[in-house]
Each structure stands twice: as C-alpha cells, then as structure tokens.
Amino acid sequence: MPDVYNWQLGRSMAYPYEQAMPARQWAFVININRCLGCQTCTMACKSTWTFEHGQEHMWWTNVETKPYGGYPYAWDAQLLELLDQANPEGMSWDERDPEPRAAPYGTYDGKTIFEAAHERKTRPESAQRVLGYLPPDEEWATPNLHEDVPPAPAAERNQWVRGGMQLPEHQAWFFYLARVCNHCSYPACLAACPRQAIYKRPEDGIVLIDQERCRGYRKCVEACPYKKAMYRPTTRTSEKCIACYPRVEGRDPETGGCPMETRCMAACIGQIRLQGLVDMHADGTWREDRQNPLYYLVHVAQVALPLYPQFGTEPNGYYIPPRWVPRGYLRQMFGPGVDQAIERYLVPERELLAVLQLFRRDNRIVFRYAIEEGPKVFETEIHGKPFTLYDDTVIAFGHDGRELFRTRVEEPFFVRPEQHQNSI
Ligand code: SF4
Ligand code: SF4
C-alpha cells in the first residue's frame, strides 16, 4: 500500500490509494461543552435529505449521549475492540516532540484501521482493505438509545468515575456527542469500495457516493469507523451525508452566491457549531491561515480536537472536549491533546473568547475574522489563574472579503418597550 502523511497521527501511514488532497477542505468545530441535546440539528438534516422510503433508519446527523449511547448501537466500542485485538502490544502516543502543524499531538504508535487490515490480509480468512464490521439491522433501529443515561450508580465501581471526576460532588456524568460524516482526508468508505463509486471532491474535500456506480455491496458501511455510510434497501445503494454541497457551493437562492454552512450547523440553537473551509498543503497539513476561525481553534488555540484520530482516517470534524468528563475517557476519544484543550477552554485567552462568539451568528461561512479591542469588563481568578474579560468586537468576513457581521463578547441585551403583554 502507498504511504501517505497523517498529521493527526504525526506520521506516515499505509492507505490503499496515493495521497491526493483537495486544495480546500470542508471542516467543522463542535463545542461539546454547550450542546443541549435538543436534536434540532438531527431533525434539520432528516427533514432535508432522508425523509423518503427506505431512509427511515437513516440519521446522517445524530446526537448520542455518551458514554452509553451510540448510533448504530455501540459503534465506537465495537470498533475500539477490533482495534485493540489488532494492536496486542497496545496503542500509545509519543508526546515528546510535538510539531506545530505536522504533529501537534505527538506520534501515534499503534496500527490504524488500514494498517491493521493490511496485516490481516496475509491470512486467508480476510480480504478487508479496512478493519471494520457490518452492523446488523437491529443496531440501526434505536438511534437515541440511552439518551441522558449517566454511568451511575453502577459506575461507582468504574475506574474512570472514581479516578477522574472533575466535580467530586457529582457522582454521575454524561455528554452529548453530535456527529456527522467527517468527510475524512483518508476516507475509509472510499478505500473499501470495490466499485470506486466513492470520490472526494478536489474543490472542497466533500466525500460523495456516485449512485450510478454503487451496487450496494455495503463495503463502505463496513469500513467507515464512524458508521456514517448507510444502506438503503429501496434503491439497493449506499448513501451518506453530502455536506449540503449546494449550500457550501453558494447555490442556495437565499444567499446570492455566498457559501453557506450545512443545515445541521445552521440550525443549531445551542450555538455550538462552526463550519467552514480550510486550505491544505499537498500532504494534508493545513496551510497557515491565522485569521480563519477553524485554523485558529485547531492549530493556534488548540482547543478543538479530532474524533478518534487513532482510527487513521484524518477526520475533519473537531470537538472542544467537555470539561466535566473523566480525562481517561476523553483521551481515548480525542487523543492526547485533551488536557491542554480543556485547560485553555476553562481559562480562555482574550482572542479565544472573541472567536467563540462567531459560532452561529450567521448561516454564511466565515472565511476570516478580525478583532477590535474593547474595554475591560472585569477580572477574576478561575482555578487559581487570573482571567480578565474584555468586551471586544469580533468581525466576520465572507469568501469575497466582505463583512458578514460583527458581534461583541458581552452578550447584547434588549429591553422591550412596555407595550407587550409579556413586557417586564
Ligand atoms: S466519516 Fe465515514 S463515511 Fe464519512 S468520509 Fe469518513 S469514512 Fe467516509
Ligand atoms: S442543535 Fe446544537 S445544541 Fe441542539 S443537539 Fe444539535 S449540536 Fe446540540
């Protein structure tokens, strides 16, 4: 297999195809700390793309309650188990020499799902290109099983809860993990397709299934470690998230040619999602683009981390990890950058606080931001560290450099005139 570079792993890895990166890549950041679990994103996607016959079980966007929830059932626990078996010597990270953009989390020492499958091929029982499994129908049937269920009281025996709780007065924890296809830089679905029906668009890295070529072998469903490729029995083809590409292309009539965020991002009433496009080098590392909010959150502030980077697909979905969850659980899910990300989020720098205000102020994609400094509001200590709040103004710019909107760190509030029945 060819060698390709995976910056999230800090090393080259084996992949069935030669490296071929788009110039620009669709990507997103989700701030788990503020997700309400309201499922507005889930329903926005469902009512846009998957309301037809044969799509009843399909939730391209979903929100599951961790640690027990999962759609399809226990997708990550099952894949982690397979990866464990493929890595008898363990999976660890060497964090000694991180490099800013080429290896920000250090180097991953274990095998990815591609490498594990490649090794297995020497044995006659397997011809998989990607380590994976095909969930049976019943595992797709309960998309929100275990909603709001914390790992307690049985979890008092659980080492994560005992050893890592951030809030000792609470004996229970859970969090909402909002998920969508990651439009991976090394898509497992694409790697596994024997018909070469799956392709990655050079203009924005969106991964699509050509419905004319697909024959419904379900190799993509088996291979996607995030289980975001799904089979449709009425057409006998597989389908997946299309990243609302007409919106990203600026073809939505609402916006007059301005690229828009996907439906699940734009609908988020928790204001926790930010989606955009990032510029890439030929090896998949991100071009320095200091004023792109995604670049800032992932590479400068380093508060947003990839979901299960050890799988090896270089997912383009990033998460600000929840601060109340046991760290061991989070490190397994987001890699070794978790501690630093939470520290930085807990006591945010002035610029980070301003950039966080960009989430969901507008449906149009923010390509660049600028900050105008405002007055000091107050200062305090958070976890023993000094913190000062400034009422800065952050300004968002679109694809053509025009201003989209501006907003302030201090939440603006309005007093209604006393003419309505519900006036205070
Ligand atoms: S998340 Fe799954 S379906 Fe989406 S691009 Fe990655 S491997 Fe393919
Ligand atoms: S709409 Fe936003 S807040 Fe609501 S569940 Fe989805 S990601 Fe969470």
Largest sheet: 4 strands, mixed
Amino- and carboxy-terminal Cα gap: 68 Å
Query: How many helices?
Result: 12
- The residue ranges in which pLDDT falls below 50 over 5 or more consecutive positions are 159-166
Ligands in the structure?
iron/sulfur cluster
Question: For the largest beta sheet, what order do the strands appear in spatially?
Answer: 12-3-14-13
Overall morphology: globular
- In helices, the fraction of residues equals 10-25%
Strand content: 15-25%
Number of strands: 19
Q: Provide the structure class.
A: alpha+beta
Could you characterize what this model shows?
This protein is α+β, with helices and mostly antiparallel strands and 424 residues long. Helix content is 20%, strand content 20%. It is built from 12 helices and 19 strands. The longest helix has 12 residues, at 75-86. The structure holds iron/sulfur cluster (SF4) (2 copies). Residues 35-41, 63, 176, 178, 267-270, 272-273 line the site of one iron/sulfur cluster.
Question: What tags apply to this protein structure?
Answer:
three-stranded antiparallel sheet, four-stranded mixed sheet, 12 helices, binds iron/sulfur cluster, 424 residues, globular
List the helices and strands and how they pair.
Blueprint: E1 3-6, E2 11-14, E3 24-31, H1 40-49, E4 62-66, H2 75-86, E5 93-94, E6 107-108, H3 113-120, H4 159-164, E7 175-179, H5 188-192, E8 198-200, E9 207-209, H6 219-223, E10 229-232, E11 237-240, H7 245-248, H8 263-266, E12 273-279, H9 293-300, E13 305-306, E14 317-320, H10 327-334, H11 338-346, H12 350-356, E15 368-372, E16 376-382, E17 385-390, E18 393-397, E19 403-408
Parallel strand pairs: 3-14
Antiparallel strand pairs: 1-2, 3-12, 4-7, 5-6, 8-9, 10-11, 13-14, 15-18, 16-17, 18-19
